[in-house]
Amino acid sequence: MSASSSNRPGPREIFQRLLETTRAGAWDEMVDLYHPDVLIEMPFAPPGVPKSSRGREELRGRIRSGVVAADRRIDGVEVTAVHDTPDPEVIAAEWILAGEVGSTGRCFRVAYLMLMRVRDGLIVASRDYSDMFATAVAFDRLPALAAAYQGPLAGFVRDPGLDPVPYTGFDPRPLFARMAEAAGRADWVTFAALFAEDGVMEYPFPMPGLPSRLEGREAIRAQYASLNVEGGVAPTGLVDPLVHATLDPDVFLVEYILVGTARSGHPYRIPFAAVIRAQEGLFRSVRDYTDLFAASAVRGVLSDLVAGTAAAAD
Asked: Which pTM does this prediction carry?
């Protein structure tokens, strides 16, 4: 029975309870919102760390050994947007968690993009894109995690449990294919032309030293051109795009994999996700959820980024 056809709470209600228990630090109550056999996927988990986990008690153990042991205090939860989808069991939620890690004394603001399937009042599947860089800084794990990104980056294989239902709205995949082709040629004029003249690109996971928001087609072109010159790399393809429609016909979420060769010579497959508004065949806005560790490693600037961030934190 679907969430919408039962008397049990649906995905929006469960997400609200998730926020409330998180804000209160009621971790056991938060974990109890998940199904005993829940599948949780973490596409941005670093190399060597499982990108998925199965089971509510496994989640409870991770929370107790990580969040509780580090004495993480929650100061606030901000919701950027909640997107209903044609599947009544599934929502996509964008939100920010703010607080302080007691064991390190460092404050944090960590953004999340969460795809959630709720059935019979429990979360049965969740795919969580989170800002691992901001988390690593707060927990004082930056150098250790950065070391895991020195070799090939193998990417992420999605479980079909959160695959979208078929839809008949605007299909952004051809637009994404053109974007990938332009990026592969480092043709940033064509790349930027896929945006409306006043189009906006936002990065909810801000990278130190780079803007978190680009306004206008020319600003987008100039920024990507400068990254290509500095990093000396460009993707060779965009594969496995998975498009999730929302009940707003202009807004959709897309998950995809960028492939190419890093500046180090190692191959990479990096998962990305984006929340996009498109009208008249052009991107009006893109919120690009990027794995900062992986993106920096591909450009060959991860060591400099870690050193600069550590110096700023001292």
From this structure: 0.91
